[in-house]
Write a structure and sequence with these properties.
This protein has about 325 residues and is an alpha/beta fold. It folds into 2 domains: about 140 residues, Rossmann fold (3-Layer(aba) Sandwich); about 150 residues, LD-carboxypeptidase A C-terminal domain-like (Glucose Oxidase, domain 1), CATH 3.50.30.60. The chain is built from 10 helices and 14 strands. The strands form 3 sheets. The protein has an 8-stranded mixed sheet with strand order 6-14-13-8-9-10-11-7. Strands 2-1-3-4 form a 4-stranded parallel sheet, with helices on both faces.
Length: about 325
């Protein structure tokens, strides 16, 4: 399917709606974070249902593949559930892809939120159904603390509860974007975690990158591994297809062994992006950080690096 396929927008959520929590990848190390996040959402005025298999473990997975898939399907089947939030990332979402009932999802479009490993589900949902999903804060990562970051919180709820044009994306505290290549372009926003995007290439669950704006972020990958992942995208001609690139935060992506020779992360980024003839913008506050900007995948995004802004030119919900 081409990336400029018709997107399906979910309905916005309003106070009193039912939110479903699932663990399609890993479980939180501290299970109490789930209970604390439930209290947070209830305090915001929402009702919450937790998947029946949430809290289970199978090694690094939040239960068996069958258990995690069951919770995913049940939340889309449940007519009362208006939004589905992934409790955390970790690893395991990709193991579900060849068993997902995509027809069920297409017939029951709902808000679906997560990032990191959840990228696998988000890209597959878009490729197979056109569903607009949301890369944003997760319950056991961001919404369990006594003090939730106000910038991330306001941005998150505004996008999920408002069916007006989202508009310009700004960093917190007026922090500027870094411009690697100047220009202006528009396309449908897709992408997510760099390692997961790379793992999807060549599978039937990867959407086309044609006419898209590609968003990338990652964590814990030292420079040579970031290099390898970007090279994979380059050799797959992804950068020849996209209209623009947005680079979020690459957290802890440095060589920890000081005895090893290494390029810096910024040198690797420059090697792959400074020569491209498309707009590339860097240092966007999105990814494994507390001040995490929520991005919707599957809707139009205008990147103008000559003037230094990102503009999401439509709503993400109806």
């Amino acid at each position: 399917m081409l990336n400029y396929m018709r997107s399906i927008k979910p309905k916005k959520i309003t106070k009193g709606d039912l939110i479903g929590l699932i663990s399609p990848a890993s479980s939180p190390d501290d299970p109490s974070r789930i209970e604390k996040s439930v209290k947070y959402f209830e305090k915001q005025g929402y009702r919450v249902i937790v998947g029946k298999n949430v809290g289970k473990d199978r090694g690094y997975l939040a239960g068996t593949d069958e258990e995690r898939l069951e919770d995913l399907h049940e939340m889309f089947k449940n007519k009362d559930v208006k939004a589905i939030f992934s409790i955390r990332g970790g690893y395991g979402s990709g193991r579900l892809l060849d068993r997902i009932n995509f027809n069920l999802i297409k017939k029951n479009p709902k808000i679906f939120v997560g990032y990191s490993d959840i990228t696998a589900l988000q890209m597959a949902f878009y490729a197979k159904t056109g569903l607009v999903t949301f890369a944003g804060p997760m319950p056991a990562v961001d919404f369990w603390q006594d003090e939730v970051d106000s910038f991330a919180e306001e941005n998150f709820w505004r996008i999920l509860t408002n069916n007006k044009k989202i508009g310009k994306v700004i960093n917190p505290n007026g922090e500027k974007f870094y411009i690697l290549n100047k220009g202006r372009s528009e396309g449908k926003l897709i992408g997510g975690n760099l390692a997961l995007v790379g793992s999807m290439l060549g599978t039937p669950y990867c959407p086309s990158f044609r006419e898209s704006v590609l968003l990338l972020e990652d964590i814990g990958e030292c420079p040579y591994r970031v290099d390898r992942l970007l090279n994979q995208l380059k050799l797959a001609r992804v950068f020849n297809q996209v209209k623009a690139v947005i680079l979020g935060r690459f957290v802890d992506c440095y060589e920890t062994d000081t005895t090893k020779k290494s390029l810096t992360l910024n040198e690797v980024i420059a090697d792959y992006f400074e020569g491209l003839k498309i707009p590339v913008i860097y240092n966007v506050k999105h990814g494994h950080i507390s001040q995490n900007i929520t991005f919707p995948y599957g809707i139009k995004c205008n990147v103008n690096t000559s003037r230094g802004f990102i503009d999401i030119t439509e709503s993400a919900v109806i």
